[in-house]
């Protein structure tokens, strides 16, 4: 079995990268301008800046502000081609990927960067009534539901129905759930404050439900308390140690209570997209593929996995499913594939864990330090601008984004 | 029968305005801050800046750039309320409008500003295969179709199919058709130029079909020739004096030729939305309601029509269906309803007729003067900035729009 990373040379099958998210795109970009032929395949035509997707869902940014056409990012790289298509299988004996229409794309090296999706913990039927937040389509559905509920409430004479229309429930107290709850309450209490004549949007009810004993379980205790205090001060009702038992079109039911709500948002757990099936390997509990220190798949020559779909052991525990992990893995792998040197071990450099709680409040944890409030918000935006600049070739556009975020484009409130 | 415009006073039924486009919105804004209660009803939650809709369809602007929430525009006007709903009937005996769920909204004065839709000249089945451009949804569908066709062509090995995927047909040589054809060719030949590896987007074919003998038939001859020359120089194939006989998923057929095309866009004729039925009056050939010099409907006390749905006689010929006509009518009517003075006659002040042909080419006709080229483009943007500022309360935002238009946000190229 070969020790060395084989570098495909001109004329041989390319490096095929499946997925245009943080992992796949940074891998392709690290290979740009090299002698290596690369083919990047994604189901969509755009790279989505997911950390800000909750902003689209709460009508503070619009889809175009956080989506970048993949071709546009890679157009200067003559050795990289982009195909829009869906991979449905991998034939690792014949060394090719198979697309939705049967087309076979041969690979010399395969990089799987397929990401993750939300996990409904054995209740797939909840997906229809509790939208998760993974794609632009999800964000627009949630946004439409929120705004339409206020519009209906404005016309509604039935008190119980009006109350239900003005209630939202967010399930899951990790960063996404905290961000959603914090921005929905801001949408209601600030943005829409003066827009209605029969209802008072500041009476909207936002409920955040978390099964664990604290919010932001992966961050230090200090950040959890700050998030809890801040959300409660903003008016969010936070239920900790609470598990959801039932969800339907009228709302949710927990062990102890029923909440009638027009909008239910699922942010409670993720699961890797099923690349393990393609390779015929056994995934872990979250559907992830265990990888070696060089990100390769044991027993599957010339196949690598990066990002949310990979289970990478870092000193006894797996790396979390974060944008910065995917980006660093993709870039590291791309650089190694470029040089063809013997493989070494990937090392993750944590730039800090962050979560936003509102327009002026965030938490930021780095090693033993925790920051909260405006300083944390500033650090959060630094981290995200760096992530963003990596894909936007021009710093100007990154600041345009920041400008729009700050000035809160009203056009983002479209119901379409 | 009363001569005077009745001004509803506090406690009496309000002025109900149906439609949040240029006509309805400018009427409501002219009444803002008066003692008159106003209720504005629209099916959507946003006002759409239609002159730039073709920019969204060709992926140069995104929906949020040209859509403004109606509530946001009117939030400061305490006497104006906004309802999101669809009017399905008018009971002019009981003096109320009826919404889609049966809710009845009483009016003291009714202003119908329902606008227009595209006219398929007796071929309603063409609507499925030839999208018209009236709403954000239309624009996104066209955009997705254009971009997806290039994506499929990139993966396609069949020459005939590839050629069809890279062909678009625009039907109708008025301003909308000319703008669409000009910007699609720019999308292909400039914006997407370097993004593909297997196809050359500059080989895309754009065909513009017009039944009349010249483009822009409502503008002077000089403008028509300039538009024709400019489009042909950009690479658009223009067929004049040509009527479309058949349209299906494979393309179009005229009297003389067949054109295989993946994208067919209908911009060939408009028809007023059917308010005439609501009132039980006979519409003209285009579905418009004939109005008196004060914009009222003869035989229907306290009912007015503004915009595309009104047929207003100006010196022997009806005013055209233009944004500036609707805006001026709405504003004039609002001011008169505010003061309650005896009615006079509406007079339209033409600020010039314009059409854009590309990023640097436009035509502008005012009285006996015609301008073409960059000067016309500059005048075009002045006219449109004035229209836009009228609804955006801050000049800053209008310039943000202009900035985005010039810098051509890549995010607008989302396929979602």
Automatic annotation (TrEMBL), chains A, B:
Which Pfam families does its entry note? Pyr_redox_2 (PF07992)
The EC number of this protein is 1.6.5.9
Keywords, sorted A to Z: FAD, Flavoprotein, NAD, Oxidoreductase
As its record notes, the protein acts as a catalyst of:
a quinone + NADH + H(+) = a quinol + NAD(+)
A single GO molecular-function term is: NADH dehydrogenase (quinone) (non-electrogenic) activity
FAD/NAD(P)-binding domain sequence ranges = 15-330
Q: Which Gene3D superfamilies does this entry report, sorted A to Z?
A: 3.50.50.100
Q: Which PROSITE patterns match?
A: PROKAR_LIPOPROTEIN
Against InterPro entries, the record matches this protein to: FAD/NAD-bd_sf (IPR036188), FAD/NAD-binding_dom (IPR023753), NDH-2 (IPR045024)
**What domain of life is recorded for the organism?**
Bacteria
Q: Which family does it belong to?
A: Belongs to the NADH dehydrogenase family.
Name of this protein? NADH:ubiquinone reductase (non-electrogenic)
């Amino acid at each position: 079995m070969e020790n060395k990373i084989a570098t495909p040379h001109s004329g041989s099958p390319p490096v095929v990268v499946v997925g245009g998210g943080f992992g796949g795109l940074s891998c392709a970009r690290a290979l740009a301008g090299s002698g290596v032929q690369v083919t990047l395949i994604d189901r969509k035509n755009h790279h989505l800046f997911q950390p800000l997707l909750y902003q689209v869902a709460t009508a503070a940014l619009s889809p175009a502000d956080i989506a970048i056409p993949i071709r546009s990012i890679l157009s200067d790289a003559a050795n990289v081609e982009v195909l829009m298509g869906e991979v449905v299988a991998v034939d690792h004996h014949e060394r090719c990927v198979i697309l939705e229409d049967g087309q076979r794309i041969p690979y010399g090296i395969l990089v799987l960067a397929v990401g993750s999706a939300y996990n409904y913990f054995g209740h797939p039927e909840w997906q229809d009534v509790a939208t998760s937040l993974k794609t632009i389509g999800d964000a627009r559905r949630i946004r439409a539901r929120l705004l339409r509920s206020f519009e209906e409430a404005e016309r509604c004479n039935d008190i119980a129905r009006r109350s239900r229309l003005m209630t939202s429930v967010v399930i899951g107290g990790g960063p996404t759930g905290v961000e959603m709850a914090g921005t929905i309450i801001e949408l209601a209490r600030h943005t829409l404050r003066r827009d209605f004549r029969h209802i008072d949007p500041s009476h909207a009810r936002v409920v955040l439900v978390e099964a664990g004993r604290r919010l932001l379980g992966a961050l230090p205790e200090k950040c959890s308390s700050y998030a809890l205090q801040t959300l409660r001060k903003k008016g969010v009702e936070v239920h900790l140690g609470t598990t959801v038992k039932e969800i339907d079109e009228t709302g949710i039911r927990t062990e102890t209570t029923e909440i009638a709500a027009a909008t239910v948002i699922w942010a409670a757990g993720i699961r890797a997209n099923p690349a393990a099936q393609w390779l015929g390997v056994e995934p872990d509990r979250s559907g992830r593929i265990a990888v070696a220190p060089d990100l390769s798949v044991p027993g599957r020559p010339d196949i690598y996995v990066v990002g949310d779909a990979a289970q990478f052991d870092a000193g006894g525990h797996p790396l979390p499913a974060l944008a910065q992990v995917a980006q660093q893995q993709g870039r590291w792998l791309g650089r190694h594939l470029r040089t063809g040197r013997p493989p070494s071990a990937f090392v993750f450099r944590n730039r800090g864990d962050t979560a936003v709680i509102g327009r002026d409040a965030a938490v930021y944890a780095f090693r033993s330090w925790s920051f909260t409030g405006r300083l944390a918000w500033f650090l959060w935006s630094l981290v995200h601008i760096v992530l963003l600049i990596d894909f936007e070739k021009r710093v100007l556009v990154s600041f345009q984004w920041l400008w729009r975020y700050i000035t809160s484009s009203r056009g983002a409130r479209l119901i379409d």
